[in-house]
Design a protein that fits this description.
Bound molecules: zinc ion
Number of domains: 3
Helix content: 40-55%
Radius of gyration: 31 Å
Largest sheet: 9 strands, mixed
Structural class: alpha+beta
Oligomer: single chain
Number of helices: 16
Strand order of the largest sheet: 2-6-7-10-1-11-12-13-14
Shape: elongated
């Protein structure tokens, strides 16, 4: 009953590491956070030494513009970098360069698809900033200390802030998945959550369903997986609802998600923006994105997932589930479209069926990526089955051999004599010899035991060593049986 009395308003702040080769304001390489030795990709700029000057990474700006365009944002002609001042051991400068009053992108939205239909989630802003270093907290023999690794300090980040337009966990997950898809699609970020390339924070408040005004919000940080996000939001919704139901007040605070305890834990009472004493970064000029630059980035945008989905459903009649499996990886789409180009006469559905079942199964088992497969060879195989040169089950065998050996399907079919028997006179005689050899079964069939038709079909296929065209065999078998009635 309580479920219907309160409604949640949820917004997400997502930090995304941009897929640049170098850092946001210096030429240090962006290195793998796990394998690179600590503090090896650092320089005086990202270490925060006095007297050094930051320089804006042009590629980071372009990736951020792409993300902004994909999120239907306005792109500011002039945006301003600002210093966000606070002290923490992972931030040697004592401030983080971010954007505050004048972000690069603002006033956008993203469409998400849920069981309740399509929904528009407004995106308030997307701004550029730099990442901090990373602390590792150690505990050895009761002694605690922290290690500082500055490899990550200065890595370009895009912070994407939504309005609190989401009301259910389903909507939050739909938004996050779609956002990750878009960013990966554009090559803006790897979206690798295990490596911290994409990090989520949720703000959440509850209010009585008949109340217009939003409730007091809490922020939940450290949501480093979709699962953690789902659990943390459900947990907070339950907590706040309980507090409100018994007439209590929700406190404004910042929480962390504790994976170990499956609960949120208080990190600190919420600081306000003025605690950070933002001011424009004096060492950087305003970031100007003029019209030619913006047009050039626009022109470089690929066809987006939403357009692909519409085209695959409309022109090709693919079903929703298959479309999602294609669209979830850009490499899948590329492969599929290469197949279409190589075999325009084939039905796209036939290509998709072979791709999503047998090909994907083989790739999974063998731990291979789809870009290791030649789409031209693959469609030759699909065509061979489609044209009846080999039957479906032989096709599966040829596919595996093709993938393992790299030989063309026609070479494999030729070498093994796998051509399907579609020769009608041959099939006619195969069927009649099977019927003559099995008079008892034929009699039972004629007496009404119809399932024996399948058994007889199996006998003919076995005689033909699996190479007969099953459709032709079926028709011929039925014709001969009917003639006996
Ligand atoms: Zn550096």
């Amino acid at each position: 009953m309580a479920n219907n009395q309160y409604k949640a308003d949820i917004g997400l702040e997502v930090h995304v590491e941009l897929a640049t080769r170098s850092k946001m304001f210096c030429s240090c390489a962006v290195v793998d956070p796990i394998s690179a030795p600590p503090n090896t990709a650092v320089c005086p700029v990202c270490c925060g030494m006095p007297g050094v000057l930051p320089v804006i990474n042009r590629n980071a700006v372009e990736l951020a513009i792409k993300a902004g365009l994909a999120l239907n944002c306005q792109i500011a002609e002039t945006s301003i970098f600002a210093r966000k001042n606070y002290f923490y051991p992972d931030l040697p400068k004592g401030y983080q360069i971010s954007q505050y009053e004048y972000p690069l992108a603002y006033d956008g939205f993203m469409l998400i698809r849920t069981s309740q239909g399509e929904k528009r989630i407004r995106v308030r802003r997307a701004h550029l900033e730099e990442d901090t270093g990373k602390l590792t907290h150690m505990n050895e023999n009761g002694e605690t200390y922290s290690l500082v690794n500055l490899n990550r300090a200065g890595v370009p980040l895009l912070e994407i802030v939504s309005e609190p337009d989401m009301h259910t966990v389903e909507e939050v997950l739909a938004y996050s998945h779609e956002l990750r898809l878009l960013l990966r699609w554009l090559g803006v970020s790897s979206g690798d959550m295990e490596k911290g390339s994409m990090r989520f924070e949720a703000n959440l408040s509850m209010r009585p369903v008949d109340c217009e005004e939003l409730g007091t919000r809490v922020e939940v940080k450290n949501l480093n997986s979709f699962r953690a996000m789902e659990l943390a939001i459900l947990y907070q919704m339950k907590m706040q609802e309980e507090t409100l139901s018994r007439g209590g007040k929700v406190e404004q605070q910042t929480l962390g998600w504790s994976e170990a305890n499956n609960k949120t834990v208080v990190q600190r009472s919420k600081e306000d923006a003025n605690d950070y004493r933002y001011f424009p970064e004096p060492d950087l000029p305003p970031l100007v994105v003029d019209s030619p630059w913006l047009q050039a980035v626009k022109a470089s945008m690929p066809e987006m997932p939403a357009a692909k989905r519409a085209r695959y459903a409309g022109e090709m009649g693919l079903n929703g589930e298959d479309i999602e499996r294609l669209v979830e990886e850009k490499e899948n789409v590329r492969f599929f479209e290469d197949c279409l180009a190589a075999a325009p006469a084939l039905n796209p559905k036939t290509i998709v069926n072979w791709m999503l079942t047998d090909l994907f199964a083989w790739l999974n088992i063998n731990g291979k990526a789809i870009d290791t497969v030649d789409p031209k060879l693959f469609v030759q195989l699909v065509e061979a089955v489609d044209e009846g040169v080999i039957n479906q089950s032989t096709g599966k065998e040829v596919l595996v051999e093709m993938l393992e050996s790299g030989k063309t399907p026609s070479a494999i079919i030729e070498a093994k004599g796998l051509h399907q028997i579609s020769d009608n006179s041959l099939i006619t005689s195969l069927v009649s010899s099977v019927l003559q050899a099995n008079p008892k079964e034929v009699q039972s069939y004629l007496a009404g035991k119809e399932t024996l038709a399948n058994w007889l079909f199996g006998q003919v296929m076995r005689e033909a060593q699996g190479k007969a065209n099953p459709q032709v065999v079926k028709t011929e078998l039925q014709r001969q049986l009917d003639a006996m009635k």
